[in-house]
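To: structure desk
From: M.T.
Subject: fold request, one chain
Message: Could you run this one when you get a chance? Sequence is below, nothing fancy, just the single chain.
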Amino acid sequence: MTKITEQPSKYRHLEKMSIEELTANINKEDKTVAFAIEQALPQINLLIHNVVTKLSHGGRMFYLGAGSGGRLSVLDIIELPTTYGAPKGQVNSILAGGAEHLIEALEEKEDDTEEAWSKLSEASISPKDIVIGISASGTTPFVLAGLKKCREHHIATGCIVSNPDSPIAALADFPVEVITGPEFISGSTRMKCATAQKMIFDMISTTTMVRLGRVEDNKMVNVALINDKITDRAVKMLMETAKLTDYQQTKQLLLEKGSVKKALDHLSATNTH
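Reply: Done. Structure tokens follow.
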């Protein structure tokens, strides 16, 4: 395979560039990321279809990653219970070295070939679930070993990689190859590769939550009421949707029912009777 992610940057002598030149050139490279994702949309769509199917039947999704991509997947999943009221444990991330070490760059853990399956086994992984490997290079031993074990145990797998024809893609049932090209800083895949990964995580989690019925119209009606700002937003959402005019009464109803969705269901049932 060709490791495009490790190829030299097309920009030379960065230390001689001004701040204006550096930011303009980084921005120029970043603009190519969305196009690279567009080319991979058929693969992304197929992966999401299978994620939605698994979760619709009581299964779970696991991201499996190391480095920047693994850390970004943790950030994606921890917001889902708040934003969409998703059940904790429905969408998960297994990070090489452990999510509890998120702020530590335990890059050596990406070479561990035992931890991935050990962590998946602790989570009682089964064929009801789906595992998505995250690797810029497509060769990360932690991810590769985990997907290999999943295949042996008949567990569906996907992947997000940034090199073509990689070993990880070969082990994935639903591979996503987003070829973002050489990085601005040669080999620094925390840049374009990680930007692409973040955008795809947004696509996977958002689309999945919409298809699972956790969004109505364009509103996050299952948002958890965890602070004053979100509660205020939810009150206004409920007022707009249900055509209510009294803020305090609406807030009282919202807090009593626990979510915009439950309050709307209550109002609908009340109006029906």
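Reply (cont.): The chain has two domains: 4-211, 228-272. Let me know if you need anything else for the meeting.
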